[in-house]
Specification:
The chain is an alpha/beta fold and 577 residues long. Helix content is 35%, strand content 21%. Strands 1-11-10-4-9-8-7 form a 7-stranded mixed beta sheet, with helices on both faces. A 6-stranded mixed beta sheet has the order 17-20-21-14-22-23. Strand 15 and strand 16 form a beta hairpin.
Length: 577
Amino acid sequence: MSEQFGGRDGASSPERHGQDAPRRGETPALVARRISKSFDRTRALDGVDLSINRGEVVALVGQNGSGKSTLVKILSGYHEPEPGGELSIDGVDVPLPVPPGMAGEIGLSFVYQDLGLNGGMTVLENLNLSLRVRHGLGAWSPIWWRRERREAERVLRLYQVSLALDARARDLAPVHQARLAIVRSAHDLRRFQQASGGHSSIMVLDEPTVFLPEGDVRFLFDLIRTLVSLGGSVLFVSHDLAAVREIADRTVVFRDGRKVAEMLRGDFDEDELVNLIVGAATPRRSSARAEATEEPEDALTLDEVTSRSVAREAGRAVPAAAAASGPSRSERTIRVEGLTGGRLRDLSFALAPGEIVGIAGLIGSGAEDVPYLLFGSEAATAGTLEIGGETLSIPQLTPSEAVRKHLALIPADRKQFGLGLELTVWENMVMLVQDDHFKRGVFRRDELVEIARKGVVDFGVKPPRVDVRASALSGGNQQKLLLAKWLLAGPRLLIAHEPTQGVDVGARRDIYRIVRRAAGADAMAVVWVTTDFAELEEVCHRVVVVSRGRESGELQGDEMTEDSIGAAVLRQLEEVG
């Protein structure tokens, strides 16, 4: 199989930059041709070609949803591609789909974004896990633990990593988990090369720098350089353009499931690459702003039920036109100052009642830490929150105190942290207001059930029954139930992390509508954190960009489009130290 770039059947080739990719061996380490994959009506990959030469680091870049992870999962055998695609390793054809367990046998090793470790196993067991999986029935042969411990200690010394062999992977800090996953992958390839007599080996790194501090990024790069010096190859999937520029020999760009360009190291231009990744930006007016000007101010009908919330929030509502144009700085009465913790460093921003502010950042940027630091569910080291005329110390804030101060959190993992799945719909929905219906020593259960009956209708929870367990609902209806639980309590600040993750399109639209109307009617401020930049464009009035733990820009008005948000995030990775 000869290496080929370009489209199929005479279609135009992707844009090329510079000369053809250099060949370090007569046969490429990996060649993939005409790889396609669809999920329902979504075209995740559309006839893409990819080649990797021996001793070469190829970076694969693109926005979320561009097809990068889908290709990685096809290479690993997790996804089955559509008929017509071809894959060869070291000049030998590989069947598609890749049979289970074959990837390791043909010289492919993977470090996934979620690292792929078995949390219940020890460091020693994880290091040797591929031996058990790869050998099939041979894995039932006796395990010589003393010998394996000596070998594991030698491997960790070789890569200059210090880990306790008996520690369980789930008990390690994220950075140590990342080191373990990277060392395991490198060692698997080393064993493969020794056993195969020097055949090609390819390490696939999917967002490898997410959990690594700067010092460990250097460790990763040194390991990659050692690997390629021995004839290995690397597919480096990343959003981090600074890392790509430093380590990649060649960069391939995916957009909307297609390969649109590739460039050699010497042709690397930051602005041009960003434009290739995001495509041509077309300014559009945000749907959140459009709705604010076109719809009359419209309170949720549950306000009639929750009179306590309405009375407390009286006088705070802002006109829809004001929300459309955006509040002035003087109107932003909720202020976060110097928020520090996790990956965040000194983040400050402000909101007005009724305003929806997005936080945009790539995974690992620190944006995903904002919700949990603000709510007190993760420990902050510095920062203050001014809300309701009171200034709170965020490091001293606990979730129970946050609830008392009228903060609400929609976590990304609703099943583990948002709902009581074994409780009924009505028990979940009224959880935060039930104290108001406990009078003279009597629990007013009938009042709470009636609130829930009205709530499932008003919030569109289906089926509209209050006696079923929350676990019986679909993901979208669980999310609407979670929103109803918090909005019944009348929060001043709603903090949402990936609030439409894992829900269908219809439920997504319902969630947008519920949050917009609650913000407009009750003057509730909203912090909306997501890596879905199209969602930020549609829902938010402003977007704060976070890169490497710090604020690196703000977008609003016509400049706040999906493409411009993506470009700002990518560019700021280079500009923020």
